[in-house]
Amino acid sequence: MTARSTILASEQKTAAWGAVFSMSLCVAMLIAAEFMPVSLLTPIADGLGATEGQTGQAVSISGFFAVAASLLMTTLAGRLNRKWVLLTITTLMLVSLALMASAPSFAVLMLSRALLGVCIGGFWSLATAVIMRLVEVEHVSRALAIMYTGQAIAAAFAAPIGSYLGGIIGWRGVFWVLVPIVAVNLVWQWATLPSLPASQRQTFRSLKGVLTRSYFARGIVAAVFGFAGAFSMFTYLRPFLEGVTGVDVTMLSALFLVLGCAGFLGTWAGGKFASQRVVRLLQAVPLLMGLSTLGLLGFGQQLAVVAVLLAIWGAMNTVMSIAWMSWLSQNVDDAPEAAGSLIVAAIQAAILLGAAFGGWLLDHLGIQATFIGSAVLCAASLLLIGSGRRLLKPD
C-alpha cells in the first residue's frame, strides 16, 4: 500500500467515525424533541388554549407515526441513496421543531408532532443498517454504543434543562434553542456521511421474508415484552416516587438525573460486551430490570436503596437498545434494513402498549399492580430469550 493510499484509508476511517458521532447527535435531538414536551406540558397547554389531556395526546401522537414510518421508510425509500434519506429526515426534524416553536394553534402542534414521528421511525429503521456500513464488523457494537450515547445524554438532561429554560425563555424558546443545533447537525451529516447507495429495493415481501425466520420472530416477541415491561413501569415512576418514596420535586429531579446518568454506564457496557456476549446481555436486561422493579416495591421507602435500584434500571434500559440492535446486526446481517424496520416498529408499538397497560393497572388496581405487571412482562421476555440458542441464526 502506497503512502497516499494509506492516508486516504485513514481519512475514510476518520470520516466514518465522524458520521457515527453525527448520528449520535441526531439521536440526542430526536429523543429531546420527543420527550422534552413532557416537562413543558402545562405551559404548552396554556399557550395554545388546550387542555393538558389534549396536549398529552399531541405529544404521544409522534409514537403512532413512528410505528408507521419505521415499517414504510425502507420500502418507500426504494433505491434512494441512504445518505440523502438521512439528510431528508434531519431536515424534516428541523421543520418539525420550527413548527412546534411557532405553532399558532393546536392543529399545527399536532402536525409538528406527526412530522417528528416520521423522523423517529425513519431514522431508527435505517440507523443500524447504516452503522453496519460505516465501520468494520468488529466495531459495530462500539459504534452502536456511541450512537446510543446520544439517547443517554437526552434522557439525562433534556427534561430538567427543558423545564429550567422554559421558566426563563418560555416553552417556545426552548424549541427555538434546538433549531440551530439540528441545523449544525444537518451540515455535519452532509460533510461526514459517505455515499450510501441502496444495495437492493426493499419490498413488503422482504419484510415478510425476514419475519418468517423463526429465530428473528422469537427475538421480536422477546423485545416487545422487554420494552413493554420497561415503559409500563417508567411511565408511572413519578407517582410511585411521590406517593411511596415520598420525595419532593427537588429530590424527584435528582433521582431522575441518577437514572438518566446511569445510561452512560449502559452505553459503556453495551459497547464493551455486545460484540462477543450479546446473548448474556439480552438475558441480563429483563432479569435486572424486573428485579429492580420488584425491589422498588419492597424497599420503596428507603431513599438510598431506591437510588441504587434506579441506577441499575437506568443502565439496563440503555443496554437493552444496544443489545437488541447488536443481536440484529449479528444475526440478520443479510437484510439489516428490513430487520431494522420490523424491530423498530415492534419497539415503538411496545412502548405505546406498555404505557397503556401500566396506566390501566394504575387506574384500576394501583401503582403496586403496575410495577408487578412490569416485572411479569420482563419475566416473559427472559423466558423467550431462554438460553439464547433459539435467537441465533442457523449455521
Automatic annotation (TrEMBL):
<feature type="transmembrane region" description="Helical">
    <location>
        <begin position="215"/>
        <end position="237"/>
    </location>
</feature>
<keyword id="KW-1003">Cell membrane</keyword>
<dbReference type="InterPro" id="IPR020846">
    <property type="entry name" value="MFS_dom"/>
</dbReference>
<feature type="transmembrane region" description="Helical">
    <location>
        <begin position="305"/>
        <end position="327"/>
    </location>
</feature>
<dbReference type="GO" id="GO:0005886">
    <property type="term" value="C:plasma membrane"/>
</dbReference>
<feature type="transmembrane region" description="Helical">
    <location>
        <begin position="114"/>
        <end position="135"/>
    </location>
</feature>
<feature type="transmembrane region" description="Helical">
    <location>
        <begin position="58"/>
        <end position="77"/>
    </location>
</feature>
<feature type="transmembrane region" description="Helical">
    <location>
        <begin position="367"/>
        <end position="385"/>
    </location>
</feature>
<feature type="transmembrane region" description="Helical">
    <location>
        <begin position="281"/>
        <end position="299"/>
    </location>
</feature>
<keyword id="KW-0472">Membrane</keyword>
<feature type="transmembrane region" description="Helical">
    <location>
        <begin position="147"/>
        <end position="169"/>
    </location>
</feature>
<dbReference type="Pfam" id="PF07690">
    <property type="entry name" value="MFS_1"/>
</dbReference>
<feature type="transmembrane region" description="Helical">
    <location>
        <begin position="175"/>
        <end position="194"/>
    </location>
</feature>
<dbReference type="InterPro" id="IPR050189">
    <property type="entry name" value="MFS_Efflux_Transporters"/>
</dbReference>
<feature type="domain" description="Major facilitator superfamily (MFS) profile">
    <location>
        <begin position="12"/>
        <end position="393"/>
    </location>
</feature>
<dbReference type="InterPro" id="IPR036259">
    <property type="entry name" value="MFS_trans_sf"/>
</dbReference>
<dbReference type="GO" id="GO:0022857">
    <property type="term" value="F:transmembrane transporter activity"/>
</dbReference>
<feature type="transmembrane region" description="Helical">
    <location>
        <begin position="84"/>
        <end position="108"/>
    </location>
</feature>
<keyword id="KW-1133">Transmembrane helix</keyword>
<protein>
    <submittedName>
        <fullName>Putative MFS family arabinose efflux permease</fullName>
    </submittedName>
</protein>
<keyword id="KW-0812">Transmembrane</keyword>
<feature type="transmembrane region" description="Helical">
    <location>
        <begin position="339"/>
        <end position="361"/>
    </location>
</feature>
<dbReference type="InterPro" id="IPR011701">
    <property type="entry name" value="MFS"/>
</dbReference>
<feature type="transmembrane region" description="Helical">
    <location>
        <begin position="14"/>
        <end position="38"/>
    </location>
</feature>
<feature type="transmembrane region" description="Helical">
    <location>
        <begin position="249"/>
        <end position="269"/>
    </location>
</feature>
